[in-house]
Amino acid sequence: MTRVLSPEIQAYLDLPYAIELVFDRAEDGAEGWVAEVEELPGCISQGATPEDAVSRIRDAMEGWISVALEDGIEVPRPRALGRYSGKFVVRVPQTLHADLVRSAEREGVSLNQFVSTTLARSLGRNER
Hints:
about 15% strand
């Protein structure tokens, strides 16, 4: 069943808020995904799969925005994504450069793809 939202809440939900999605492993070994909207403090949810976490964060956003509007609190706008070219230069020692090239070759990908994926993983993100 589809919920009918007020036009004001729907307008906020249609804005391009950035949802941060992070894999999480609890001390007891339980695994799942945590989704959070940085612009909406405390708007956080979790799920067993990335899709589940994102679905639940949409519900959390709806609740967060609804309560803020009822309480007369200004709803923050999404942050501007800025203009990033997707390029940057990094100087590394020759030995590290060689190690990266060899690792990329073992994976059968370009150096650029290998470094990009490795950086994304270090931030806890899946490659998009």
